[in-house]
């Protein structure tokens, strides 16, 4: 029996073809490099700071939603907020203070919470005749109450009316970038024509999913003319680093 001789160059050529076509027995193609995913809200590998005006609004419990809007009613999302999972609902309520002073059509934000809460700016609280203290969200012990009126009924809140303290939402990658932790305080500088301001005592609220966003109220936003701001800077309190 004759044996066909194949020269070395021919063998090398066949091997190269087999590797390129993936037909070599046992050969595996190289795994693609895993895509690098930015943390929530980041752009091009960097935190993307947003400063938002948090207008007056109401948070409700499931029970109070039904009392105000009817048995079996749930909050209906109308517009998603910047933070994932949070929304402005279609429903609004009237907030009534002492001596029948009232604010109509105050937006309800969802999802529902374990305790109902009304967040106002200072001028709102003056209009209602309520001495609302500055508090961080959820810290409502010892705060004034009010009456909420909806199309199906009313709720007397014994407490829960606050002026929301300024704060910044961020995820843990943001916190590491700025060198801060949940509960720390930061500084926000707003640069705008003839209205530049520095806000101290910006509370860090860090969790895994949040996007970098500072919340100030309408009075604060108007004072610094936020809509016309040319620059916003968030820094760790006591340091001159910028972000």
UniProtKB/TrEMBL annotation:
One of its GO terms (cellular component) is bacterial microcompartment. The keyword Acyltransferase applies. Its cofactor is Zn(2+). This is Phosphate propanoyltransferase. One of its GO terms (molecular function) is metal ion binding. It holds the Pfam family PTAC. Keywords: Acyltransferase, Bacterial microcompartment, Metal-binding, Transferase, Zinc. Belongs to the PduL family. Its main location: other. Its EC number is 2.3.1.222. The gene is pduL.
């Amino acid at each position: 029996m004759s044996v066909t001789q194949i020269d070395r160059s021919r063998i090398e050529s066949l091997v190269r073809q087999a590797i390129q076509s993936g037909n070599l027995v046992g050969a595996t193609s190289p795994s693609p490099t895993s895509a690098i995913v930015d943390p929530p809200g980041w752009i091009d590998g960097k935190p993307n700071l947003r400063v938002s005006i948090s207008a007056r609004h109401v948070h409700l419990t499931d029970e109070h939603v039904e009392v105000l809007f009817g048995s079996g009613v749930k909050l209906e999302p109308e517009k998603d907020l910047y933070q994932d999972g949070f929304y402005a609902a279609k429903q609004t309520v009237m907030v009534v203070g002492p001596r029948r002073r009232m604010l109509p059509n105050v937006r309800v934000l969802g999802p529902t919470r374990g305790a109902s809460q009304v967040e106002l700016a200072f001028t709102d609280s003056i209009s209602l005749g309520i001495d609302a203290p500055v508090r961080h969200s959820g810290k409502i012990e010892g705060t004034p109450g009010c009456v909420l009126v909806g199309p199906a009924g009313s709720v007397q809140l014994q407490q829960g009316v606050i002026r929301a303290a300024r704060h910044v939402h961020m995820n843990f990658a943001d916190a590491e970038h700025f060198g801060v932790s949940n509960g720390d305080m930061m500084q926000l500088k707003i640069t705008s024509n003839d209205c530049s301001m520095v806000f101290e005592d910006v509370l860090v609220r860090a969790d895994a999913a949040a996007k970098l966003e500072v919340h100030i109220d309408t009075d604060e936003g108007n004072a610094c003319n936020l809509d016309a701001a040319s620059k916003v800077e968030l820094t760790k309190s006591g340091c001159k680093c910028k972000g």
